[in-house]
Design goal:
Elements lengths: L2 E5 L5 H4 L7 E4 L7 E4 L15 E4 L9 H6 L3 E3 L6 H16 L2 H10 L6 H11 L12 E5 L3 H12 L3 E5 L5 H6 L5 E2 L3 H7 L2 E4 L23 E5 L8 H10 L2 E6 L12 E3 L8 H21 L20 E8 L4 H11 L4 E9 L2 E8 L6 H7 L4 E6 L1
Parallel strand pairs: 1-2, 1-3, 3-4, 4-5, 6-7, 6-9, 7-8, 9-10, 10-11, 11-12
Antiparallel strand pairs: 13-15, 13-16, 14-15
Helix pairs in contact: 3-6
Bound molecules: nicotinamide-adenine-dinucleotide and (2R)-2-hydroxypentanedioic acid (2HG).
The site of (2R)-2-hydroxypentanedioic acid has 8 residues, from loops.
Amino acid sequence: MSFKVQTFNQIAERGLNRFDPVKYQVGSDQVEPDAMLLRSQNLHDCVFNKNLKAIARAGAGVNNVPVDACSKHGIVVFNTPGANANAVKELVFCALLLASRGIVDGMRFAEGLTDISDSSVLAARLEKEKKQFAGVELYGKKLGIVGLGAIGSMVAEMALALGMEVLGFDPALSVDAAWRLPNQVQRMESLQALLGQADYVSLHVPAIEQTKNLINAENIGSFKKGAVLVNFARESIVDPHAVLAALNAGGLARYVCDFPEPEFRGRKDILAMPHIGASTLEAEENCAVMAADQLRDFLENGNIKNSVNFPPVAMPRAPGTCRLTFTNDNVSGVLGHVLSVLADLQVNVVDMMNKSRGQLAYNIIDMEAEPSAELQAAVAAVEHVIAVRLI
Ligand SMILES: NC(=O)c1ccc[n+]([C@@H]2O[C@H](COP(=O)([O-])OP(=O)(O)OC[C@H]3O[C@@H](n4cnc5c(N)ncnc54)[C@H](O)[C@@H]3O)[C@@H](O)[C@H]2O)c1
Ligand SMILES: O=C(O)CC[C@@H](O)C(=O)O
């Protein structure tokens, strides 16, 4: 059994090393790959080859992957939940400080005093001018966190440790995420309520249809006067024109984000970084290793962990068996039909698992003996079966 994995973007070496070179050909030049491994590469206009079985996003957001189209073709899409959350949390801490203290302007000012060569003259000038760069402390301020998943919950913990009050809003909070959340986080019933009370607002929601322009011209007026908006989630979540208008009107004090826009240039009240929230050695390695391991387990065993469109499925392999996996539309009767095909071909089933998620169902069947050549085609021909593999 051998597989081709096509890579996009800079994938950490530690992740690439997880692929055994005897079984895998890995690289950006692979054609007709079994799987793709990527970071922010936009796949929306990509034409997928018929052999493609899986796409692994080494990161959290999957807005660069056409997930619905993948589901239609039975392509499993993975991400790496939480693997870069600490990196983003640390940069949010930095963003809160940058927004509150005269760090950037003060450093630029000091750097700009190039005409002063005497250090005591320089020190006297800096002492005289430093009042322009005075700021405020985070301690005692209110941080509103929108989206309390992997990153939001870590930001909450950090803010509480800094002595901030934390307000949270997440109407879709999972049970696991709720368990992770410190109980001092005050639950807000609406985004509006959070915006009205927070001194700082940090966004940690996915870029999906429901979060497009979540911060917009209608609700930007709800921010507390002088509040700071922090966006290390995605550009589509914030309407930049609404932010610019609020900054110009003095409603918002600062916008710190990971997504520069041409109109942001030269503004002292906007600090825009080049999408570096997850750009740490540790996060890049964590994401690459997790993505690679998930791909390997899927390609070699058909197991699925951390998919955004398929259910989680893992079945230990019964020794000496051959494994059939298939994806089907989640309608009744398909599994029964496939089992009758196997019975007609005199195949003995040793173990099996069937799970569904939304419109899709996924099945693993371990069979006693090596099946005849016609089995895969016979299963593929069953109505509502989308993809079949023999592993
Ligand atoms: N800047 C970067 O480099 C960087 C790095 C990692 C993640 N991100 C972005 O951050 C996002 C969040 O990452 P995560 O790891 O915390 O994901 P996550 O899935 O663990 O958490 C997202 C949370 O948002 C909540 N949510 C969804 N819709 C919401 C809404 N309308 N209002 C409030 N909450 C809502 C979900 O219920 C979930 O709890 C990612 O989807 C990605 O786009 C950016
Ligand atoms: O790969 C990156 O650098 C960014 C990843 C980040 O945006 C994510 O959604 O995890």
